[in-house]
Automatic annotation (TrEMBL), chain A:
This is Acyl-CoA/acyl-ACP dehydrogenase. Keywords: FAD, Flavoprotein, Oxidoreductase. Belongs to the acyl-CoA dehydrogenase family. Residues 160-269 form the Acyl-CoA dehydrogenase/oxidase C-terminal domain. Pfam families: Acyl-CoA_dh_1 (PF00441), Acyl-CoA_dh_N (PF02771). Its cofactor is FAD. Residues 6-91 form the Acyl-CoA dehydrogenase/oxidase N-terminal domain. Gene3D superfamilies: Acyl-CoA dehydrogenase/oxidase, N-terminal domain (1.10.540.10), Butyryl-CoA Dehydrogenase, subunit A, domain 3 (1.20.140.10).
From TrEMBL, chain B:
The lineage of its organism: Bacteria, Bacillati, Actinomycetota, Actinomycetes, Kitasatosporales. Belongs to the acyl-CoA dehydrogenase family. Residues 120-213 form the Acyl-CoA oxidase/dehydrogenase middle domain. Its cofactor is FAD. Residues 6-116 form the Acyl-CoA dehydrogenase/oxidase N-terminal domain. This is Acyl-CoA dehydrogenase. Gene3D superfamilies: Acyl-CoA dehydrogenase/oxidase, N-terminal domain (1.10.540.10), Butyryl-CoA Dehydrogenase, subunit A, domain 2 (2.40.110.10), Butyryl-CoA Dehydrogenase, subunit A, domain 3 (1.20.140.10). Keywords: FAD, Flavoprotein, Oxidoreductase. The keyword Lipid metabolism does not apply. InterPro entries: Acyl-CoA_Oxase/DH_mid-dom, Acyl-CoA_Oxase/DH_mid-dom_sf, AcylCo_DH-like_C, AcylCo_DH/oxidase_C, AcylCoA_DH/ox_N, AcylCoA_DH/ox_N_sf, AcylCoA_DH/oxidase_NM_dom_sf, Mycobact_Acyl-CoA_DH.
Amino acid sequence: MRFRLTDDQRALRDGVRQLLARRFDAEALRAAVRDPVRLDRALWRALGDAGFFALRLPEADGGVGLGLPEAVLVFEEAGRALLPGPLAATHLAAGAVPGAAEGETVVTAVDGGLAEWLTEADVVRGDTAGAVPLRSLDPLTPLHRVPGAAAAPDPVAVLLTAAEQLGTAVRVCELAAQHARAREQFGRPIGAFQAVAHLCAGMLVRAETARVAVYAAAVTADPADIAAARLLADEAAVHGARDCLQVHGGMGFTWESEVHLHLKRAWVRTQRAGGITESEELLAADLVAGTP
Amino acid sequence: MDLTYTPDEEDFRARLREWLGTALPTLPPKPSPDDWPARRAYDLGWQRRLHDAGYADVHWDASPTTRLIFLEETEKAGAPYVGANFVGLLHAGPTIAAEGTDGQRARWLPPILRGEEVWCQGFSEPEAGSDLAALRTRAWRDGDHYVVTGSKIWTSHAEVADWCELLVRTDPSAPKHRGITWLALPMDTPGITVRPLRTLAGSAEFAEVFLDEVRVPLANRVGDENDGWRVTMVTLSFERGTAFAGEVVACRRVLTELALQARENGRWDDPALRRRLGRLNAEFRALWRLTQWNVSAAEASGGVPGAGGSVFKLRYSHARQELYDAAADVLGPDRLDLDRPWTLDRLSSLSYTIAAGTSQIQHSIVAERILGLPKGR
Ligand SMILES: Cc1cc2nc3c(=O)[nH]c(=O)nc-3n(C[C@H](O)[C@H](O)[C@H](O)COP(=O)(O)OP(=O)(O)OC[C@H]3O[C@@H](n4cnc5c(N)ncnc54)[C@H](O)[C@@H]3O)c2cc1C
């Protein structure tokens, strides 16, 4: 057992982080917020070129030939960078929908009564009859409400969403700690006050617990492990983003700071790929599985 | 990332499992939780059998992964817990193995492994709990001995211990972290008085220890004089890092029992309770992964666990309390019956956020050592 990133996995993660730092930095994020309904197609293709969508396609089919562990690392980075777009839906469509793997085609999916990025997508999976736009809470995720029964979620979609949540949890913890080291009140950095320090420590503990749950689920692909990863990652992202906002004080409540964007996206993701209840029930059933 | 074990490790697991299958049915009955001498004998007897079967050295000589498999399999099989051997096997022993001289290792480690000697931990004092470095128990040199005077508190298993890992102040004029020394104290030395303290669970598992001019040979010092704080950090990293690993497996077993019990008594039909148990399933799965993660990190860095132990300890101590709170919900009115094992476990789980460093102290460690926040007061 070596439950750690391999050198290749580390290199992949660092490569994606660098790519996103180049192609989707703080300035690009701001631009996206200013013009929220457009999806940056050039960026989407750059992701395609980097293998973001074709990551798990076999090499024989023109893919990268990697597995779920690599996919969660890449999606963690996407979450960390607040990358907008129907990333999981397009990733899952690679190989099945022409152009998805290359980042030429933007694919979205109807999911639990909602559809993200409906007007920007080239291909929609699921029935969108009667779709009505709503004013999305997250400025970077346009949403439609879609009537009809929800299909059972694909466990891989659940896991990739959890990986994005993990990225958010890690990022907001970093932001909070950075701010707590720099911002001074009462003549000292606010991070020297225990009430603030403990808030940050709690964020780290939740993020690291989510991390091992997400990574392990990627290795085992076990549905109960995936459900566990989703619960812990949702909690780490949402609770973490709220605490990050608190650590930022009044500044955290402004449109200018990026904290609210993390919180709003984290909330959007909790609605994806089946809800929390579903994961909890799956894990409850798992406890008594095999006993009549 | 790899969660599979090597053929050698799987081999070890299979042999251990087979041995447990034959050894466990022949165990004597468990003594009453209040009968400490009987509990000591029971715990030492189990350790002796592990030793004779060749499994004792797993605590120091084996790789961290092998130790993890050992803890996993023994817990899964419902084998006795380390009990009175807790301090010796899980943190005094590893400290001596890491910091002691060859002679010290030869003197102290084999009797721990053979189940002959019990250790206790004399760190906390009435005026030095969370602020451990404020300890005041004094030791001064007299020939080839230290003479120790002071008092310790909350010393688990002190009544039945043969040895105590003792922290003393050898230089009162130095800054408080600098003048501390780590000693191995034989508990039968004249001048030691042990006064049992009753815990909220009703048992007397810890005690006050009074030391009145107790003579300890200089040769019993582990590490240098006045360098005891550094040695203590090694002890605490074992105490927080790996000592609880097996318990996670036990908690997962309890959780399954809870679910089955709830199905029997109809509580399972309550969706709120069911979902709560589902969430605890997520929690303990993740705690097991955290254990594997920390073990892999320790293996890569060569032994002593790092600040990751505090992350684990924080999360685990709270999860354990939530587990037994959920148990109370499953039990219904029986939750007030002390003869139900989960009731006692619920009471003792209250100590987990206090013992081995409170949750507040662990949060501060995470903030300062992992997040690099400034030291606060
Ligand atoms: C079951 C049990 C077994 C134990 N066994 C042993 C043993 O074998 N050997 C041994 O040496 N010790 C043992 N202990 C002692 C244990 O390590 C201490 O109880 C613990 O470190 C807390 O110290 P204290 O009890 O003095 O509480 P205090 O330090 O007085 O703390 C009281 C409260 O104040 C908070 N607090 C204190 N300082 C700070 C701070 N700087 N920042 C924020 N909050 C703070 C604490 O978190 C706590 O909530 C045991 C304790 C228990 C409960």
